[in-house]
Amino acid sequence: MKENNYVSDLAELAAWRDALAVEGKRVVLTNGCFDLLHAGHVRYLKEARALGDALVVAVNADASVRALKGEGRPVHSAEDRAEILCALRAVDRVVVFDQARVTGVIEELRPQVYAKGGDYTVESLNDEERAALQEVGAEICILSLLEGRSTSETLKKLAVTDGGAASLPKLGVLGSGKGSNLAAIFEKIDAGELQAEVAVVISDVPDAGILDLARERGIQAIWIDPCGEKRGRLSDAAIKEITDRLRAAGVELVVLAGFMKIVRGGLLQQYTGRMINIHPSLLPKHKGLGAWKQALVAGDQEAGCTVHWVSEGVDTGEILGQARVPILEGDTAETLHARIQKQEHQLYARVIGELLDQ
Ligand code: GAR
Q: Of 112, 147, 182, at which residue does a domain stop?
């Protein structure tokens, strides 16, 4: 059975090394932080072990990891890192050192081999450590590292998957149509250009494409019956239900993406200053329905889209951003709307990002 020990006494380590030397065995020393162990570490340690007959890992104490890697590191304490390393088949002894350099361990242990990861060269080793290695006659071996495996990479992945998602700002999207603006928001999130999570999508139209888009991603997709109210209006019950659903989903910013109902009452009160809308015109021009058609009928030279805070009126509220679209000869309502929508898809995510301070 392998003897696996966490050693705190360097003199004891030196005695063990001498006993091995009598048997003609070579001790390999390596050192590092070994925080959040990954396959790169494991492979490296196996290779280091293969350079001799026993492997000693000197682990940086917590203060020196903090000094090297910054606040918030190490993730695991020196005791935990040592315990985990001790459990690896390739590792024979683990020692924690609390100086900035591993020189003291080199001098005491006098390893026959010293292994270091491939981000170093013999020249880039610290002068003091290199001198100590030469003094004890250790052979220096630089081992290659496994691409893409590092504790920092692991931490980055954690920041964008489950653990990190909990801390992403939550959006609630309301729409009545096909949801091309929502699709554009998803694209920006997937591309890492927008750090947000769509927590819930709500529609007043039962078969709206926007609900399907949410369902495809496993996001809550809720149809709320506008309760037979006339066009443009939501019943009080519908207003309450939407407000409750947004609150229950922990929504921080409400994004209206083609929501063809007037927002009022408790919903507006609850989310004033936290609810935005996109409208297909250069507001304050052409409020209301079919804004791009209004621009054509008016004989405008240009159209565009506007993102604004939602306020009491229809398509009113402070303007947060606009994009301009020239009206071309021969433009139809369809061609113009399609070009405006292309701009909407860029503008909306950009403004959301700015509001979320990204
Ligand atoms: C968008 O063009 C948006 O500007 C408009 O509805 C469309 C929804 O498209 N909104 C308004 O007219 C609001 N007054 P989408 O469902 O493909 O995102």
A: 147
